[in-house]
Design brief:
The complex is a heterotrimer.
Chain A: H1 14-21, E1 28-30, E2 55-62, E3 65-72, H2 83-99, E4 103-108, H3 118-137, E5 142-146, H4 154-162, E6 165-169, H5 179-186, H6 196-203, H7 205-211, E7 216-218, H8 222-231, H9 241-257, H10 266-273, H11 287-291
Parallel strand pairs in A: 3-4, 4-5, 5-6, 6-7
Antiparallel strand pairs in A: 1-2, 2-3
Chain B: E1 9-16, E2 19-20, E3 27-30, E4 37-43, E5 48-55, H1 61-74, E6 77-78, E7 80-86, H2 91-103
Parallel strand pairs in B: 2-6, 5-7
Antiparallel strand pairs in B: 1-5, 3-4, 4-7
Helix pairs in contact in B: 1-2
Chain C: H1 8-24, E1 28-29, E2 32-33, H2 38-45, E3 51-54, H3 63-70, E4 80-86, H4 90-97, E5 101-108, H5 113-121, E6 126-130, H6 133-140, E7 148-157, E8 162-163, H7 171-179, E9 184-193, E10 212-215, H8 235-252, E11 256-259, H9 263-278, E12 288-290, H10 298-302, E13 308-310, H11 319-323, H12 341-351, E14 354-357, E15 361-362, E16 368-369, H13 382-385, H14 397-407, E17 422-426, H15 443-451, E18 467-470, E19 473-476, H16 483-491, H17 498-501, H18 505-513, E20 517-518, H19 540-546
Parallel strand pairs in C: 2-10, 3-4, 3-7, 4-5, 5-6, 7-9, 9-10, 11-12, 11-14, 12-13, 14-17, 17-18
Antiparallel strand pairs in C: 1-2, 7-8, 15-16, 18-19, 19-20
Helix pairs in contact in C: 1-2, 3-4, 8-9
The chains are: A alpha/beta, B alpha/beta, C alpha/beta.
């Protein structure tokens, strides 16, 4: 049996991912742990803080080109965005407007707003959205890398779709409402959150690839994410009226694709309507095979 | 455990060190997740080893003290501050992270 | 009382069958009974006070028959004495609440443990005894013979032959005892084959032993109990697995073994093709297993470590993989697995040289228990493996070495040369919520008082435990020569629990010098090497890939 050669992106901690993604030793961190820029809210709730409030931000090079980069730690508070965490992301993005790196990379793994911090968290996420859109409008591509075990949900899901370019692994997930929330609100018959295969069919990388919600689908492998990040350094796609209208048209088409009542699995029905042959086999196919299924 | 105040518990231990750690860039290991902890190692002036712990698992001071003491027996560092954010890690995991942090000091 | 009639059982059986014939009329054709007629069938076949075995196995459940039993009129059928391996379904206890059943002999009640405790203290259930699986099967042939067996099979044909397939489990033992003592066997099946266009893949239970077959409205419930997601294995579990392999398996040359269920043992299975390979151990350990088809064993099988696996039951998702690896698993000529809990328990007891498993509490004598207050969970099968087979047994190098360690420098009966089975308790010193695994007094003693048991429900007796393995190291109890040494050996690996902190440091150091206690470093293991990267598979998908796509995990385990 061979020893694992590929490094699982999902298995890595945020810092590990970041270090392996960029050119070796090129990461320079701003507001590192030793500066203890931590949450002003958690201690009074009896919750431990993290020295970096769950996100590492800084500058690095990728294939020799300067990038700004942030990595969210999904294990800390589910990657939830709190006041300080959000401020670090906003600061990174605003600095990008000033320093004009080749791209801003966000290694996203988050449940969205850190509910413990209530309004401060909500405001933080909305400020991230605004700052991201400014960077995008300035012609600096913002690239989301999504492949952590906790996925990219809530407000961060919306942030992801504000970006120029989204790279996902098939293990990654991207959505707004989390599976448990959907089940709690609409009942287990509508959505069984413990049916993990269902969760991945509706929020996972393969589905997002087939429905056009992500731009690249990769294996759960740090090297694959690195290659996709390098390829995305020129993927600037500022929001224009044309782009917005095309997006609206795509969404209208998608909405009309499925009837109100669907027999069997809805994700597979959608894929079939999108022109995917043998949609039922998609969950069992590997990434390369699923890539080939999308009509451009 | 009803007479322990709510909130995080803060614990501090200090030991006389023997092995100067010298100057080094701060070391961070671990993640603050359920059953886990992060350990930050920083150089300080002086010859002591100061350990500062903030934990959500309250009431285990005696165990933390024993773990800290044994850690210092294994690695009698001087001029080091160890800072811990803990979310209920078992002593086994705590000792492992402390040792992992120290192993990143070695050149 | 007719002393000259030696055929009362046969007469009684004939009477019951006659009642069934009258009650069902056209709803019965040969052995096949219409699904809607299940309640009249049971009411005609059963009599008050009958001893009934309702197939609640560890995995498969005769759930349709359980629900149907619940619908009987307690005026007509009451006071049943239930004998069954596992109480898994709510219906298994509902029948006690409404008076259909009154007495219980069983082995394991996992999910129903809390409710069982409540019903016992409310006086609604009288427990005969709590058994291990093999003991219970044994009593089916002595003093707990079932009069009625309600079993589950995959398929039946027109004659009444049954195919029980991969999840054969307890059925052969139950049916043999019942059929050959004048009892009545009723089977629920998932499908009926006509014997012409479709036939059974093979015959697991011959028609002669079966009285009635009914097609259930839904396939019988089967639980995937032995699937462990490698993503949840921790670094500490990897460290303990390394110690198990290097400190015990390699030391004693363990070729034949059983793993108790858990993430700790899954870690061992996943370290064979990597860590154990790097130690040059392939072929020297782990060739023959009494084990359910653990998905975590796939990488080791693929790497050529495993010669044979005999199983207690099957595991959902493993069917195709097992078919494709017929050299390793016990499969029929039809290609599907044949499991047999009774034989596998016997294999684990007599033909294996090591058991390793986890537990919830260990005391200073090495007694261990999973009993917790407010639950009566029983024992399952672990004690059959986690015990020395005390009588005469064939020799193996592993067994002889362990026995020699235990008996060296002893005289008299205790020093008579013989071997001993390795029984290893593998446990982290603290469980979830910082509950210590090492205690001065097991909860089992309190449970005994609460539930009025004759003995505390100790799962594995300290006298049988040969090694205790924690993240702190291994205590070899075979080398202890007094209760004091034994106590300090246990304290010496009990970490920072109160038991561990209460150690006599000098004595523990002395035990370490003698090799009674070994720390990871003493075994040449650096704890910092214990990372998840050593695992041959780190996710469910890795397992699927290792199986070449043959393993198909149940939906709840998939994340791709």
């Amino acid at each position: 049996m061979t020893v694992n050669i590929s490094v699982s992106y999902a298995e890595c901690s945020a810092r590990d991912r970041l270090a392996r993604l960029v050119d070796e030793g090129s990461f320079h961190e701003w507001l590192p742990p030793s500066e203890r820029v931590t949450s002003p809210h958690l201690a009074q709730l009896g919750v431990p803080s993290a020295f970096d409030d769950g996100v590492a931000v800084g500058r690095a090079t990728l294939a020799g080109r300067t990038v700004f980069i942030a990595a969210q730690e999904g294990e800390f508070m589910g990657g939830g965005v709190g006041e300080v965490h959000g401020a670090k992301l906003v600061g990174l993005l605003r600095r990008a407007l000033r320093d004009r790196p080749n791209a801003v990379l966000l290694l996203a793994e988050s449940g969205g707003v850190r509910l413990h911090e209530a309004n401060a968290g909500l405001i933080a996420v909305s400020e991230v959205m605004r700052a991201l859109l400014d960077v995008r409008a300035a012609g600096i591509p913002v690239v989301m890398l999504i492949g952590g075990a906790n996925g990219c949900f809530g407000g961060m899901g919306i942030v992801a779709r504000c970006a120029d370019w989204v790279v996902m692994s098939d293990m990654g997930r991207l959505a707004m409402s989390g599976p448990e929330v959907i089940e709690a609100s609409h009942g287990v018959d509508e959505f069984d959150a413990r049916d993990r295969a269902l969760v991945w069919r509706t929020t996972g990388g393969k589905h997002r690839w087939l429905s056009g919600d992500c731009d690249v689908l990769v294996e759960d492998d740090v090297a694959a994410f690195r290659a996709a990040a390098i390829a995305a350094l020129d993927a600037s796609a500022p929001v224009t009226l044309e782009r917005l209208e095309a997006e609206h048209a795509l969404l209208v088409t998608r909405l009309q694709l499925l009837p109100d009542a669907v027999d069997g699995d809805e994700a597979m029905a959608l894929w079939a309507r999108l022109g995917v042959a043998d949609a039922a086999r998609v969950p069992d196919l590997d990434v390369a095979a699923v890539r080939a299924l999308r009509k451009s | 455990m009803s007479n322990i105040p709510p909130g995080l518990e803060t614990l501090d231990y200090s030991f006389p060190g023997q092995r100067p750690a010298g100057a080094f860039a701060p070391v961070l290991v671990g993640v603050v997740g359920s059953g886990n902890l992060e350990v930050l190692l920083e150089p300080v002036s002086g010859t002591r080893c100061d350990i500062h712990i903030e934990t959500s698992a309250r009431g285990f001071g005696a165990i933390w003290e024993a773990v800290a003491r044994d850690f210092h027996l294994r690695h009698p560092l001087a001029g080091v501050r160890v800072s811990v954010n803990d979310m209920g890690a078992t002593p086994a995991v705590v000792s492992l992270r402390l040792d992992q942090a120290v192993s990143e000091l070695a050149p | 009382m007719d002393r000259m009639n030696w055929n009362t059982k046969a007469d009684n059986r004939a009477a019951r069958l006659a009642r069934v014939a009258v009650a069902l009329g056209a709803q019965r054709t040969g052995k096949r009974v219409a699904t809607e007629a299940i309640v009249p069938l049971l009411e005609a076949a059963l009599e008050p006070g009958d001893r009934v075995c309702l197939e609640g196995n560890n995995q498969k459940q005769a759930d349709f028959l359980a629900r149907s039993l619940l619908q009987l009129d307690p005026q007509r059928v009451h006071g049943l004495h239930m004998v069954q391996s596992v109480l898994a379904l709510p219906e298994h206890l509902d029948i006690f609440e409404n008076g259909i059943a009154g007495r219980l002999d069983f082995s394991f009640s996992g999910p129903q443990g809390a409710r069982l405790a409540k019903l016992v203290s409310a006086g609604q259930i009288e427990i005969g005894a709590i058994h291990t699986y093999l003991e219970l099967f044994a009593r089916y042939f002595v003093d707990l013979t079932p009069k009625i067996a309600l079993v589950a099979a995959q398929a039946a044909d027109a004659q009444g032959n049954l195919y029980t397939g991969p999840n054969t489990e307890d059925t052969p033992a139950i049916v043999e005892a019942t059929a050959f003592s004048g009892g009545i066997v009723i089977a629920q099946v998932n499908e009926w084959v006509d014997g012409k266009t479709t036939t059974l893949p093979r015959v697991d239970i011959p028609a002669d032993w079966v009285d009635f077959v009914v097609v259930a409205p839904r396939p019988n419930f089967i639980e995937p109990l032995f699937t462990r997601d490698p993503a949840q294995i921790s670094e500490i579990q990897v460290l303990m697995a390394m110690m198990a392999i290097k400190g015990i398996y390699a030391e004693y040359g363990v070729q034949r073994l059983n793993h108790g269920i858990g993430f700790d043992t899954a870690a061992i299975e996943l370290l064979l093709p990597t860590y154990a390979e790097s130690l040059g151990l392939k072929g020297k350990i782990c060739r023959h297993w009494a084990l359910n088809p653990h998905p975590a064993l796939i990488p080791a099988i693929e790497a050529g470590w495993v010669e044979s696996v005999h199983s207690f039951g099957s595991e959902l998702g493993m069917e195709d993989y097992i078919r494709a690896r017929s050299d390793v698993f016990f499969t029929g000529r039809d290609g599907s697995l044949r499991s047999n809990r009774a034989f596998c328990q016997a294999a684990g007891h007599y033909a294996c040289d090591l058991f390793i498993g986890s537990t919830l509490q260990i005391d200073l004598d090495g007694n261990s228990s999973t009993a917790t207050l407010g639950r009566i969970s029983g024992f399952g099968g672990a004690p059959n493996m986690g015990a020395d087979a005390r009588g005469r047994r064939h020799a193996s190098p592993t067994w002889l070495k362990a026995g020699h360690e235990a008996r060296a420098n002893r005289s008299g009966a205790a020093g008579t040369p013989r071997g001993q089975k390795l029984v290893v308790q593998m446990v982290e010193t603290f469980r979830e919520h910082m509950q210590p695994a090492f205690v001065e007094r097991l909860d089992a003693w309190t449970l005994q008082e609460q539930a009025g048991m004759e003995l505390p429900p100790i799962m594995i007796y300290g006298e049988d435990v040969t090694h205790i393995l924690t993240e702190e190291g291994i205590a070899n109890l075979l080398l202890c020569r007094s209760d004091v040494e034994r106590e300090q050996a246990i304290r010496g690996v009990a970490g920072y629990t109160a038991v561990g902190l209460g150690r006599d440091h000098r004595m523990v150091e002395n035990l370490r010098d003698r090799g009674v206690i070994r720390r990871p470093q003493d075994m040449g293991i650096d704890p910092r090497e214990a990372t998840r990267n050593l695992l041959a598979a780190r996710s469910m998908r890795d397992l699927v890939r290792a199986s070449g796509g043959l393993y198909s995990p149940p939906e709840r385990f998939r994340n791709w």
